[in-house]
Amino acid sequence: MPTALVTGATAGIGAAFARRLASDGFDLVLLARDTARLEQAAEEYRAAHGVAVEVLSADLATEDGIAAAERRAAAGVDLLVNNAGFGQHDTFLKTPLAAELDMLKVHCEAVLRLTHAALPGMIDRGRGGVINVASVAAFFSRGTYGATKIWVVNFSESVEQDIAGNGVHVMALCPGWVHTEFHERSHMDKSAVPDFMWLDADTLVAAAVRDFRRGVGVSVPDIKYKALVGLSKAIPRGLSSRISARSGRRYE
Q1: pTM of the predicted model, to two decimals?
Q2: Domains present along the chain, CATH in parentheses
Q3: Which residues, 6 or more positions from 242, have their beta carbon under 8 angstroms from its beta carbon?
């Protein structure tokens, strides 16, 4: 059976990926910080789908956590889903510097190092791929979060170009607002987000898997978010930044 490594696997988009991949017959390596939730999820997937599930308790904001994940990725996986991440509810100067640096480590350094660890084995086998979870926030000027997510998009596109022709695919996934624990954990106000803008995590992942199999480089599931991203490219950068600032830190 193919094996998928999913980071941030116990909740939200990561859990939705784990559910979908287990149902598709993937053995799983689930990475998150909460060991108890990891073990519970692993038992559920084993019972429901008969797949093998490893758990890796690691904090990707730490060197030890990234190194442990790196070792497992290098040992061989067929699909890597770099999903772990978090948001900030305040502005740059009001956010502790340590939290900003942790965001860079989780959103950028971990993504880079795990991708670098996983790809050589995939290329040797001539199959496999990486899904790096970014955000529609990548297309707007909105704090360190948006900056890290546009890095993920650019990084994914660059690596995809580097490995073209090797049977391996790298895709950036850019979701909009999704019903997950993300916003509560980040202490974000969700009240101003219209109901129609919210996406279901399982539906999002189904669209992402379709795009990945089709070889899409940057996946923006849902027509309204495709339109939003298109609009962001069509209007002047300064106006886009002002609109983003007024909307607050509500991107996922």
Answers
A1: 0.88
A2: 3-247 (3.40.50.720)
A3: none
